[in-house]
Amino acid sequence: MLVRSVVSGLCLSVAAGGDPEGAAAQQDGCTDSPAQRWRTIPAGGGVTLVNVASGKCLDVADRGTDDGAKVQQWSCNNGANQQWRPQPATADAGGQVATGAVLLVSVNSGKCLDLVESQTASGVHLQQWSCHGRANQQWTLGS
């Protein structure tokens, strides 16, 4: 499945060609390449997102709980920092919500997968941030 940012229309991808341990999660133009495809596997209180190209999991670095913690890929280890709870998005402060959009909430920290400052350029790295539900934290899951 593709994970697409509501604010930019770009897809969740992995930097550095999709394979290295610790490669940053970022957004890029959607090409449907294996580095942009993710499998969901039920885990703990949510799901684990596994990158099709690398077989590694979407991970909050160092089990971080702070705003701004890096989101990366890492070998799957069933940690709570690799578990995400999709929650239906509600209208943000501007009253906007995309049909079918979700927030991806880290089971470890309770914080959301976040597109830094709503940037729309390819290559922008992702982080976790306190959930506020605005468009830069809204994602659509599908093809």
Give the tags:
143 residues, mainly beta, Trefoil (Acidic Fibroblast Growth Factor, subunit A), two-stranded antiparallel sheet, two-stranded antiparallel ribbon, 38% strand
Question: What topology does this entry show?
Answer:
Layout: E1 2-5, E2 11-14, E3 25-28, E4 38-43, E5 46-51, E6 57-60, E7 71-74, E8 84-88, E9 102-106, E10 112-115, E11 126-129, E12 139-142
Antiparallel strand pairs: 1-12, 2-3, 4-5, 6-7, 8-9, 10-11
Structure write-up:
This protein has a single domain, classed as Trefoil (Acidic Fibroblast Growth Factor, subunit A) (Trefoil), CATH 2.80.10. Strand 4 and strand 5 (46-51) form a beta hairpin. The protein has no helices and 12 strands. The chain is mainly beta and 143 residues long. A two-stranded antiparallel ribbon has the order 1-12. Strands 2-3 form a two-stranded antiparallel sheet. The mean pLDDT is 93. It has strands at 2-5, 11-14, 25-28, 38-43, 46-51, 57-60, 71-74, 84-88, 102-106, 112-115, 126-129, 139-142.
